Amino acid sequence: MATLDNANPTILSASQLPTRQQRIPLRTGPDLRYNDIIFEKPSYLSRPFCDAQVASWPRTDASDGPLAAEPIDEQEIYDLISTISDPEHPVSLGQLSVINLPDIRITPAPHTPGVGPNTIITVLVEVTPTITHCSLATVIGLGVRVRLEQCLPPNYRIVVRCKENSHSQDDQVNKQLGDKERVAAALENDTLKGVLDKMLETCA
Amino acid sequence: MADFRQLALEFVLADDEANQTSLAQQAASELQSAPANTNPVARWVEAVQPWMPGSNGDEATGDNETPDWTGRAKVKLLISFFGAMFDVDHKAGVLASATALSRITEMKSFQPTSADDIIQKICTLKDDFPRQLAKTRLAVFELLRSLITNPAVASDLQYKHGASSGFMNDLLALCRNERDPTCLMVWFDVLAFFLQEYEPSQEMIEEVFNTFKAYFPITLPRTSTSGITPEELKQQLRKCFTSTHKLASFTFPFLLGKLDQGEGVTVNVKVDILKTVKACAEAYKIPEQTVNPYVDSIWSSLKYEVRNGEIEDTIWATLEVLKIMAVRLKGDNLRDYALTVTRDCVNDLANAVYTAPAGRLLVSVLSATPSAFVLMASPAITHVKENLRHPKGPGHSGDLLRILHVMLETRLLLVSTDMGPQERSEFAAIDPVFTSLYDDVYKKPLEQAIKSEASYDDHKLAAQAVQGAGALVCQKAAKSTAVADVDASRLLPGDKCLAICDTLFSILEQTRINEDLRRTTASDELASETTKALQRSVTSYNPAYVPLVRRGLDIIRSARKTESSQSVSTAQSLGLLLAYVGCSELPAVPSQGLDNFILITKAMYLELIASIEEKSTLDSEWVSSIAQRYTGLEEPHAQPTTATAAASPGQVRTDFLLISLYFVRQLYQRATKPSGTRLGLSGEFGAMEEGTSSQLLHLLGGLAGFVVHELSEAEQLSLGASSFAMHLFHEDAVPVPQAGAQVEPSEWSWIATSRLNVLTFGILEALRPAAVAQLYDAGVAQAILIQSVTSNVSSANPTTAFVLRAILTILANKHKLETVEPVMEIINQQAEVILSGEADNSTLTKATSMFAIAAGMLRRYSGKHASGLLRLLRESSKSSALGQSLSRRLEMVVAPQKTLTKNNFAIVKPLWMQKLYFELAKSMTPQALGQDSSVQDRVIRLNLSIGTLMLVEHMPFSIYEEDAEGILRIAIFVAQTIGTGPDVVAALNVLRNILVEASAKGEPHLASIIAICTAAFSSKPHVTPEWLPASYASASVDDVESQAESCEAALEIMGGLPKMFESRHLVPSAPKVERELTLACGNPVRNVRKLARAARAAWKELR
Hints:
heterodimer; A: alpha+beta; GMP Synthetase, Chain A, domain 3; 2 domains; 3-stranded mixed beta sheet; 6 helices; B: mainly alpha; 56 helices; 68% helix; elongated
């Protein structure tokens, strides 16, 4: 095997990665274990035994439930791409800090009112190669782009760039990643396609 | 000289009898008169031979010739004639001659002196003998046997040949190579008889021994068809070995030599050798001369078979040999043998690996005779005890205890054998060794087992020890088998027996207590073994039974007083134990068995009566009694005192429940206020926000339900818990009707229709069926049921209606409502009214109440008594006015609810869902599919379809598997017709279940399935058909929940399709689906987006 560009990268553990936070973190101690039973909503107030939304029970915040509407936000984009495997090491891009939550930007911002399914939304992802001369920065960028194209609806525009000053040739890399023709051509390349498939295997 | 050939021919050709007789007489006279050297008989035989009908020459002779052949001289002549045949005409005549000679030797006039001649003649066969057929040889062998075993012949032969037995030499030479099993059976018989009855010289004995030893070990060819089993053959050969004690000097060295050959000896051979050794040792006379010289070599050869042996058959055969030697030896010889065995074995007792074999060796020898027991028991026990003091591990102790146990059992057997006075006094001399055994050996492991922290190994060891202890109690004293006094005949004193029985009972008590917590195979074994030992001990020592019964009753009594939940099982298990121990076997004095029976039966009877009569602490006066016992409960600021502190955990629990109930009572009284004989919510609720007050009332009901739920059925009944549901603890203001009194339904409508029905519901949910029956006795349940189905019980607060439904469900489930005629009548009537189509505003409410009743009733499955109700369920969807609402509410009947779980004492029959499907959905499905010509209206078909889906959604696939095809079409129909909403969610859920269980059924409808799923998750508005009334339109936009639910179900189906079907079915629609899935990736709900991405990936892999 050819020598690795970076043989000894810094790897974050899973607990150090950013995750979606519970809005109201509930403590689950031994003294609270009967809470569910005591404060449960009575069965006669749920479908099919009641046939209307009733006000006679303190309404829990609807946006808490699993079926609440939540727009695609930076964390979701992060979750989609941080699980991509590094082409060199058997760890994810998130663990290598190639993908960082602050380097993902969505415009217009997720909770902006008036954003509909037809609004063009731009997702900007800046990757940080582990070393400034990383030869695989383009491949990583391409992987991120492919993954997002597979996962996002058509009204999303994806821009993948190297973070400023993170790479000795970042303008070259950015040019390649921004050029639709070259991206399309790269995906025709069987070897490159194989590498990308391998990287995306670990994405849920 | 007569021509016999001619005479024979004429005889055959002669027509009449007279002619034949004269010819025969002529031949006879020729035979008589002919000179001896012309051998006339031989010529005659040759002449008649061709005309013989069978091969048996003897018969022919008898048939053809009438002359009297029984004369001595003639017999002699015959013998010399037939004897000559062996020499002359071998092929044809051997069998005939041998048979003939056999007959001759049985004749009266046969002279024993001729036997020698016959034997000599037979020996002339020499090398021709082995060439004869087996059948021929067998005849010869049988002839030999009949001769040699004939006592007269035997004495003649012995007289003639003396000790040298020359004739035998020739016979041995003749028969040396015999291999046929049938012949060998006879030959071995001859040899054994010869050795046993003749008195041959030592050389002759050796000669004979060499002959038969060559056959050992004998086997039977697998192809043999002789009908002889290998075991018979082995036994016959063994008979040769055991025939005379003079063989001893040959057999033992020979057999031991065979045994010591090592690896080449198979198990079968080894067992054969050992059995032969045993048979020899058993049979030889004068054992001190024949067996004794070989005892040492046998012992040193055989002990390893047991010590290191692995095959049980060999070990057993070896032990038999060792035992028989001890039986045969006497006096000093026995002493020496016993000493050798003891010396060799006791050292092995210290080694955990060899303890068990050493024990088997010891026991096999000492169990042989009382004398051997006397010699060996004492040193063996001493060594066992010594090693028990320093065991090498739990297994080692177990083995040692097992040895002791077997020795005790042996003593039990030996003590009742016949012994001379001398022997008996010797036997009694070692009694002290046994009397101390309990304290020295058994006490420790038994006491260890009583401890609650006893380990698995402790139990294992104790299981062994209890058997020994049981056998010890049963021991009789050696001296007094004849003594009538049963007490004096025991080895152990009475108090020791009592102590052992008491300890055994303690072990059982401990294992019983541990039963639920720490049951292991060892503790189970211990319990069973202890029970057996105790039964044995009590049968042997009857006085031990009374204290055991007393102890058992004490335990039962105290269990009854303290822990109510355990008391039944305690009484049950101890009753069984005591009955088994005392009454399963008649003791030596049979009347004692009857005494035991009376004792235990009477005790249990009295105990039962006492427990029935005992008054429960829980009664209707509970409020005053608890307030009295815990003063200060009533005063808000006083420190509650526990004056009469509860003694047991059971009592604490009861008091905890009563105190909780006391506070529930206070809270209920606070929340309600009486006005007349009715109750209403107290004023404080008016000021509260509605949601908060509902929650408060629900929590109150929940608390009451919790307390009532924890009460047992008997407690619920004795406290009158059902009345709590009626008067809500205002017993003074609200009189509970007497059983059987007439109750006006409207009087009790407040319980069901006002907001405080949540409080009633809380109690009802936790009541057991027997308590609910009291509500029916009082007539209140009927009042609530009738009121809710006959009048419009609308309330300002919708929650009240929902709670009422739950109450109706409980009342219908926990009591056999169908037996309450008046209510059933009204329900059936109302069902007719609703179906008749007179739809007003209240009809829907009434019908919903009926559905709630059905939900409770059908869990018990009692449909045949409620035909009206079932018809309502079946037909309600067809109602043009209410069909839509009612078909959706069918879900109430099937959907799982907490109220109807076993935990809440609901009655749920195992197959209720199957029966419900059969009663309802089975008839609705064809109508929904338009197969019934009476139902053609599309809206009604849609209603029926929705109803069917609502029923089926909560059922496992196996129930509706038969109709899955139709139900699949119904689901597609509903999903195509209606946009998103609860109905479509049900349709998609059913669709998903069917596809998961039987995806092949979906193949013909694949295009439709893809279309409806795509429609469900795409954002495009649904196009409703023109015929569909507006009320069926898709769920409103703000019903996010059902929209998201249908999106999820649809996307799950879409994601599964590529795995279920071959790609050729899906590829045509792939581009459109992928486009829609891409759009679904932007769904506002996160979980939907996740499913959409998974489905998108699955579809992408199609090509």
